Write the structure tokens for this entry.
Amino acid sequence: MSILAFVIIGVMFAAYVLSDGYDLGVAIVTPMVARNDGERAQAMHSIGPFWHANQVWLVAAGGALFALFPQAYASSLSGFYLPFMVVLWLLMYRGIAVSVRDHFANPLWHDFWDAGFVVSSTLLTILFGVALGNLVRGLPVDSHGYFVGSFSLLLNPYALGIGAFSLVALALHGATFSALRLSGPSAKRAQHAAVLLWWMVLVAYIGMSVATWFVRPSPFEHGMWVAVLPVLSIAALVFLWFANAAGEATKAFIASCAFLATLVVEAAIAMFPYIVPALPGSHGLSIYDSTPSAIGLFSALAVTIAGIALITFYTIIVFRRLFAAPVEASEPLSAPRIR
Amino acid sequence: MHIADLDRLQFSFTIMFHYLFPIGTMGLVPFIAWYTYRAATGKDSNAEKAAIFWTKIFAINFAAGVVTGIPMEFQFGTNWAAFSEKAGGVVGQPLAMEGIYAFMLEAVFLGVLLSGRAVGSRLRVTSALLVWFGSWLSGFFIVATDAWMQHPVGYVVDAAGRFQIRSLPTVLLSPWAWWQFSHVMIAALLAGSLILAGVGALYLLSKRDVEFGERFLRTGMIWGLVSCILVVIPTGDLNAAEVTKYQPIKLAAMEGLFTSEAGAPMAIIGMPDSQRRTLIDPIYVPDVLSFLAYGNLRASVKGLSAYKTELWPPVALTYYAYHIMVGLGTIFGAVTAIGVFLLWRRKLFAARWMLWITLLITPFPYIAHEAGWIVTEVGRQPWIIYGLMKTGAAYSSNVAGGETVFTIIGFMGAYFVLGVLCLYLILRLIVIGPNAAVARRLPA
């Protein structure tokens, strides 16, 4: 049951990475893809109807963590108080930038909000990467999962490397989404950007895999089958290369989703069974330490699984309808139109 | 200042600021759904413009509500770790459900309304209805979480002393949750009605967009009166009955009743003095409190002196907040009653004095809402979970006071800028008006 709870939370975080990942990525590649106000507007509008819903996955995953592993929720959020607050403020700034941009007519205001959107998205991606890197590496925590080190420890080379890797990986994700959803010269530029980013992702992936070997010396503690995951990651990357080169934007985007999904699984397996892993040699907080009661677990799982099924059902219907209409460069984000 | 007090300051500041936006979204969304539906029928020529106009105002409220709401969920962990660890097994459930069931629904279908894409009128109407449903459902899960902290039910205490859920339906179907939810939603409808009426009055006073001015004013007045009645009977009354039954100390603080009395009076005005345990310069209506609490003029109501001082909530704040809420509610009732009367006599649209009153009253539902929540949350102190856990034991002891001071300053700065921005954008949309806002498509 505890394993199932771990999987559910992993699925929700994966949904967040895949979905909010592309709108974070679109922001990161905007300077490479969009050259003028109209093109930047087009890039913003391509994620306009979706980013709110994407971000809800973070809220939902946080809520599920609160319900299923309250101790981990309490110790990690309070232990990393200031970094979390910075994340919250960046999320706030990003949300405001994308929401109010079109309410201003003056292009100077557009520059201001677009730059804020790009900067906050970039920093958020790096911060999420650094956090994930530290989770994989293990944290200086006591047996209750409370952080006992200093924050300079969090900015270790491995975590910063994962931060950089997240940046290029989500940038590639965003580039494939832009190539799919934009039209005209910006779509072409996104396709070219994807080529450059692809090489960076490949180098970072191989580099960080080797580095992971050093910080987590026993990669096969859960069995040899784990070795299949890097193969899948590389396969997804190779597929992405060919799809992008052939101009098959949909396939390239799906390949990017698959690549990110394998990364999340790899990270989850590196952490398992810990939810707040400690540095090697000490004990962190494992999923067996803070299990909720059987009834609590059951109702949380039932509610979550039914909820995810429901969300999948209606988002597929709605997003298909929305995707059917292409994004126009001049289309307003916040001005609804009734026909 | 104790660290717990800093955490309380941050939580109360961020939640009170956040709550300003849900008032707008929950209150306006029924009208948006109605205008969207009317527009889709094709028989109502200016419903489309009204729908677009209010959806734009809704969207700003929604965006600000989201970005200020995300910190609320995570602050349980950052600032109230001891509480989260102990109660997460229960309160985490409705909070997770809020994200999964309500917030997602609202976000996806608001995306449809705002997409600017031609999705067909059937999907548009469905989306407006689901945004309504999602936003009220969101309110329900939040109120249900609070209701459990006010009146814990359906839980067990495990071996480690943590609260675990025994039955999710019991938590979600708690009468406390339902009466509080109905009271809050009707109050939101009241706020939305008065916003509608206020904007309508502005247009009539300035002799512009007159067809919309009359429409908004008429709708706002009628629904304002209806919700004014419903907010007292039955929802407010039954909400108070729950308080009387389970939180008698809060009731005594609300009324400023220090000594237990048979035939307790209701204080209309007066200033509570906790030291001398008396109400200064009061105006009383005899026996009314006994009647309201127990349906009997001679019933005995326990005063604050019947309880230990360490179990008292901050009396003055609870008392004033309650009186402000009830006083404002009475004024809203009077104004909407006069408004509906003038509407019936066909004099409302020309009665400039009444239009002025309607315009000036627009911000006050916000104050009534905040005051209501102060009664609820301050009035249950010193408990964070009533009878089970004290607020003073619930904070994150591993977060230094200095860190919290820094984030309080950060939130205050960020929210000041956000508040100015939202006020500017919303007031400007109102100044642009429904006709021009649609003609220009872009609200700029």
About this structure: The radius of gyration of chain B is 23 Å.
